[in-house]
Amino acid sequence: MRAKAHPPVVPGTRVAVLGAGSWGTTFAKILADGGADVVLWARRPELAREISEGRRNSDYLPGINLPAHLRATSSLRDALAGAGQVFVSVPSQSLRENLVAAGDLLDPEAVIVSLMKGVERSSGLRMSEVIGQVLPIAPERIAAISGPNLALEIAKEQPTAAVVSSASLETAQAVAKLATNGYFRSYVNTDVIGTEFGGVLKNLIAVAIGIVDGVGYGENTKASIITRGLVEMTDFAVAYGAQPETLAGLAGLGDLIATSQSPLSRNNTAGRLLGQGYGYNDVVKQMQQTTEGLVSVGPILELAHAKGVEMPIVEQVRQVLAGTLNPRDIAPHLTTDSREPQGERTIDDGQAHGGAALWGAFKRAFDQLRDGGRGPRGA
Ligand SMILES: NC(=O)C1=CN([C@@H]2O[C@H](COP(=O)(O)OP(=O)(O)OC[C@H]3O[C@@H](n4cnc5c(N)ncnc54)[C@H](O)[C@@H]3O)[C@@H](O)[C@H]2O)C=CC1
Ligand SMILES: O=C(CO)COP(=O)(O)O
């Protein structure tokens, strides 16, 4: 199936994508199919050759034919020369070293866009914060993209949406224009904190869902964890300055649904292995690709403690990873020591709302997807 490509908004705009794993390669295809002139940087020369000459990235995207005009190189200098927008998709823990290597090679006016969904373990910083710390650029030239974006589905041109976030709405819009084509729709917002934390936090809840899947629990358990997980995500992100609506949007609820449901998700898969009884080290050995959630648990809980935010589900994930909680015992009703009935807050306003707020969140996410197709807009 091939979706009809929209005419390019900015034909031939030169961009670079750093990182030729599953998401970097898929995003390079999104941009190329939108009309941009894309150079994809792969660390390994043999992978750059396979992409440029064979139009394939068989390890990461089996069965996918890449666009004929997508170029790949293992030279960072060649990839960055003249690139006005630079999209970065390397494992979060390697971002800093890659930015240091790229530093002097970047166009002084380039916009740097994070495609990553992790925090730096040593500092707890979000990816845009690492970018702002390493590179001498203002927040207005930094953006982040997040949403329900399982790479292989998008590489097959199944329609989806994401949100581009930047402190500057103009920057978000410029990036969104390039990152839009017949099967990929980019919305915009200026809530970088909420957008980035949405992507990080949903990974942790997806690990929890994988664990209960592995144990063999059914849909009630999973729905309870998704719902209560969204409350944890929202409480955490709002404590750090995010807007609660962002967590109800594509970068929060949208991505939480996709990642929690899909066997394509590495976080979900890692959780399932844990639920089936494999230990942490075995799971890490089995995961061939980046599994950000396993690394984020520690720093996120530290950040939560610093702000007094309770994250009982994430705490249980940590305990399962540490081998101190039997996966069978992970469950929403065990997430509080108190037997006192708790109010079911579904947004961070300190009150019990029943299901109304959650329904509002679902409806907004649904509306965003249904209304996609008329240019970038606020998410
Ligand atoms: N795969 C997906 O569906 C999506 C992934 N993401 C995010 O994108 C980021 C990248 O993930 P994927 O592409 O999926 O991972 P991946 O495991 O498929 O690919 C990672 C790539 O980075 C390279 N790499 C490893 N260490 C490196 C280093 N030190 N320096 C430079 N490159 C290095 C690998 O060789 C590989 O090409 C993660 O933060 C992930 O959360 C976001 C949305 C969707
Ligand atoms: O972020 C993703 C989907 O939006 C990919 O999830 P995984 O990293 O769990 O594969």
UniProtKB/TrEMBL annotation:
<feature type="binding site">
    <location>
        <position position="202"/>
    </location>
    <ligand>
        <name>sn-glycerol 3-phosphate</name>
    </ligand>
</feature>
<feature type="binding site">
    <location>
        <position position="117"/>
    </location>
    <ligand>
        <name>substrate</name>
    </ligand>
</feature>
<feature type="active site" description="Proton acceptor">
    <location>
        <position position="202"/>
    </location>
</feature>
<feature type="binding site">
    <location>
        <position position="117"/>
    </location>
    <ligand>
        <name>sn-glycerol 3-phosphate</name>
    </ligand>
</feature>
<keyword id="KW-0594">Phospholipid biosynthesis</keyword>
<dbReference type="GO" id="GO:0005829">
    <property type="term" value="C:cytosol"/>
</dbReference>
<feature type="binding site">
    <location>
        <position position="23"/>
    </location>
    <ligand>
        <name>NADPH</name>
    </ligand>
</feature>
<dbReference type="GO" id="GO:0005975">
    <property type="term" value="P:carbohydrate metabolic process"/>
</dbReference>
<dbReference type="InterPro" id="IPR006168">
    <property type="entry name" value="G3P_DH_NAD-dep"/>
</dbReference>
<keyword id="KW-0443">Lipid metabolism</keyword>
<feature type="binding site">
    <location>
        <position position="22"/>
    </location>
    <ligand>
        <name>NADPH</name>
    </ligand>
</feature>
<feature type="domain" description="Glycerol-3-phosphate dehydrogenase NAD-dependent N-terminal">
    <location>
        <begin position="15"/>
        <end position="170"/>
    </location>
</feature>
<comment type="function">
    <text>Catalyzes the reduction of the glycolytic intermediate dihydroxyacetone phosphate (DHAP) to sn-glycerol 3-phosphate (G3P), the key precursor for phospholipid synthesis.</text>
</comment>
<dbReference type="InterPro" id="IPR008927">
    <property type="entry name" value="6-PGluconate_DH-like_C_sf"/>
</dbReference>
<comment type="pathway">
    <text>Membrane lipid metabolism; glycerophospholipid metabolism.</text>
</comment>
<dbReference type="Pfam" id="PF07479">
    <property type="entry name" value="NAD_Gly3P_dh_C"/>
</dbReference>
<feature type="binding site">
    <location>
        <position position="255"/>
    </location>
    <ligand>
        <name>sn-glycerol 3-phosphate</name>
    </ligand>
</feature>
<dbReference type="InterPro" id="IPR011128">
    <property type="entry name" value="G3P_DH_NAD-dep_N"/>
</dbReference>
<feature type="binding site">
    <location>
        <position position="266"/>
    </location>
    <ligand>
        <name>NADPH</name>
    </ligand>
</feature>
<keyword id="KW-0520">NAD</keyword>
<feature type="binding site">
    <location>
        <position position="292"/>
    </location>
    <ligand>
        <name>NADPH</name>
    </ligand>
</feature>
<dbReference type="GO" id="GO:0051287">
    <property type="term" value="F:NAD binding"/>
</dbReference>
<feature type="binding site">
    <location>
        <begin position="19"/>
        <end position="24"/>
    </location>
    <ligand>
        <name>NAD(+)</name>
    </ligand>
</feature>
<keyword id="KW-0521">NADP</keyword>
<dbReference type="Pfam" id="PF01210">
    <property type="entry name" value="NAD_Gly3P_dh_N"/>
</dbReference>
<keyword id="KW-0963">Cytoplasm</keyword>
<feature type="binding site">
    <location>
        <position position="147"/>
    </location>
    <ligand>
        <name>sn-glycerol 3-phosphate</name>
    </ligand>
</feature>
<dbReference type="GO" id="GO:0141153">
    <property type="term" value="F:glycerol-3-phosphate dehydrogenase (NADP+) activity"/>
</dbReference>
<feature type="compositionally biased region" description="Basic and acidic residues">
    <location>
        <begin position="336"/>
        <end position="351"/>
    </location>
</feature>
<dbReference type="GO" id="GO:0046167">
    <property type="term" value="P:glycerol-3-phosphate biosynthetic process"/>
</dbReference>
<feature type="binding site">
    <location>
        <position position="117"/>
    </location>
    <ligand>
        <name>NADPH</name>
    </ligand>
</feature>
<feature type="binding site">
    <location>
        <position position="265"/>
    </location>
    <ligand>
        <name>sn-glycerol 3-phosphate</name>
    </ligand>
</feature>
<keyword id="KW-0444">Lipid biosynthesis</keyword>
<feature type="binding site">
    <location>
        <position position="151"/>
    </location>
    <ligand>
        <name>NAD(+)</name>
    </ligand>
</feature>
<dbReference type="GO" id="GO:0006650">
    <property type="term" value="P:glycerophospholipid metabolic process"/>
</dbReference>
<feature type="binding site">
    <location>
        <position position="43"/>
    </location>
    <ligand>
        <name>NADPH</name>
    </ligand>
</feature>
<feature type="binding site">
    <location>
        <position position="266"/>
    </location>
    <ligand>
        <name>sn-glycerol 3-phosphate</name>
    </ligand>
</feature>
<feature type="binding site">
    <location>
        <position position="151"/>
    </location>
    <ligand>
        <name>NADPH</name>
    </ligand>
</feature>
<comment type="similarity">
    <text>Belongs to the NAD-dependent glycerol-3-phosphate dehydrogenase family.</text>
</comment>
<dbReference type="InterPro" id="IPR013328">
    <property type="entry name" value="6PGD_dom2"/>
</dbReference>
<dbReference type="GO" id="GO:0008654">
    <property type="term" value="P:phospholipid biosynthetic process"/>
</dbReference>
<feature type="binding site">
    <location>
        <position position="267"/>
    </location>
    <ligand>
        <name>sn-glycerol 3-phosphate</name>
    </ligand>
</feature>
